[in-house]
Amino acid sequence: MSEYNIRPAEEGDCEEILRLRQELAVYNKTPGLELTAEKLRKDGFGEQKYFECLVVEDTKATASQDKPVLWGYALYFYVYSTWSGRVIFLEDLFLSEEHRGRGIGSKLFHEVAQIGLAQDCQRMKWEVYAWNKPSIDFYKKRGGYNVTESTELDIYQMNRAELEQLVKLHWPSN
Q: Which residues have a catalytic role annotated?
């Protein structure tokens, strides 16, 4: 029996996923984590699912209260492109540091790609910080490429504060 198993996340995994997400925030040097286990439960396992998630479960260890111990996760969702149709968007692919370098992350990435193909997705997209050379090398080795470099397509976003400000603006009627 293998020492780990890759499987779909379950509602009871939310605390462990959040713990791993915090490890990812530290690794990425990103401030604060607004996400809560409750929000994960609601958004991933509620009436309307906003994401899917695979987890890497330690098959030999058990955390407190008979909860599984997770080594990593891949959180993804579907978007639609008017150019090509269905797209799978990989939001996070993360494996705790002590479990890297053993091919587990490659297997997890492969699983997400297989799911995308099974769902008739025409692309898989993700984001990676420009400073994160290990991740960039990981993705390039598997055929990923930097869309910004190849197409000069820049990605923009608005956070909650900017969205609220935009909505408060009074737009004149035509």
A: 139
